[in-house]
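Researcher: Let's do a round of design. I'm pasting the structure tokens now; please hold your answer until I've finished.
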């Protein structure tokens, strides 16, 4: 009887020990090749630590390069040459020539070329609820030679131009006669719009947004509208409003170092000359 009980105990206890050994030391996956492959793949995958930070997002792609070119040096020297010839001719005696009667023409057209200046490209741009800036270029494909930020809002300038004639005067104090600084090189002017003082105009260097506007309008010689946003982060529905622009060719006339004028040139279409805009740079 004792031997049977001991055998039963052995038969009952022995399989339990073997099962524990199989579960702990002899996994069934060892006998199958597919399971081995699965284990190897899981070991090669990187394991993230529970407290690790997520990988940083890649930076946005850089903006396209600016293809605007430097303005030529020849046209920069042209106003100086004109001033030299004017000073020489002023010293000569005035002779009244014989004149033939001329056909009367329309003297009220302010958009005719002045014929003694150079043609440049002028652009007003800015957010509709923000300050408007003036950019002067040798041509639309060149870098700006002058950028003036005005204290006038863009939508206010649009209303003035829709009403008709606009005269902008930028005034500053006179310098000594020995000072050869041109008026367009002044850092600050007092601004008047149609005879009313409207803050100041500040000369500044071109920013990334300025170059972006000039790059987008590279193929535009005349027109007005709204520009696309530079990026998704620059939403046009914010406090500044949409980015508007107005571009036209101007006649740049240099009277002296204390006087320069920009006359906007617009084509005559069936007698409708469009808006009339003139910008005066004067030392008083």
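Researcher: That's everything. Go ahead.
Model: Designed sequence:
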């Amino acid at each position: 009887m004792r031997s049977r009980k001991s055998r039963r105990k052995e038969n009952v206890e022995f399989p339990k020990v073997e099962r524990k050994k199989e579960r702990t030391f002899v996994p069934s996956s060892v006998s199958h090749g597919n399971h081995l492959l699965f284990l190897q793949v899981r070991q090669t995958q990187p394991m993230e630590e529970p407290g690790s930070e997520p990988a940083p997002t890649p930076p946005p792609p850089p903006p396209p390069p600016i293809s605007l070119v430097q303005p030529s040096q020849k046209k920069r020297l042209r106003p100086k040459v004109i001033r030299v010839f004017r000073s020489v001719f002023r010293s000569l005696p005035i002779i009244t020539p014989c004149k033939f009667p001329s056909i009367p023409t329309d003297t009220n057209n302010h958009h005719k070329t002045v014929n003694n200046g150079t043609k440049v490209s002028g652009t007003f741009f800015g957010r509709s609820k923000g300050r408007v800036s003036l950019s002067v270029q040798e041509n639309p494909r060149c870098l700006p030679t002058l950028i003036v930020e005005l204290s006038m809002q863009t939508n206010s300038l649009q209303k003035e131009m829709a009403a008709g004639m606009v005269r902008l005067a930028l005034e500053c104090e006179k310098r000594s006669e020995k000072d050869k600084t041109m008026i367009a090189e002044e850092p600050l002017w007092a601004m008047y719009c149609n005879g009313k003082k409207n803050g100041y105009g500040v000369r500044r260097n071109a920013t990334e947004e300025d170059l972006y506007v000039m790059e987008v309008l590279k193929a535009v010689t005349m027109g007005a509208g709204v520009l696309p946003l530079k990026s998704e982060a620059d939403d046009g529905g914010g406090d500044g409003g949409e980015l508007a622009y107005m571009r036209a060719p101007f006649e740049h006339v240099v009277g002296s170092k204390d006087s320069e004028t920009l006359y906007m040139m617009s084509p005559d279409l069936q007698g409708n000359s469009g808006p009339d805009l003139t910008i005066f740079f004067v030392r008083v």
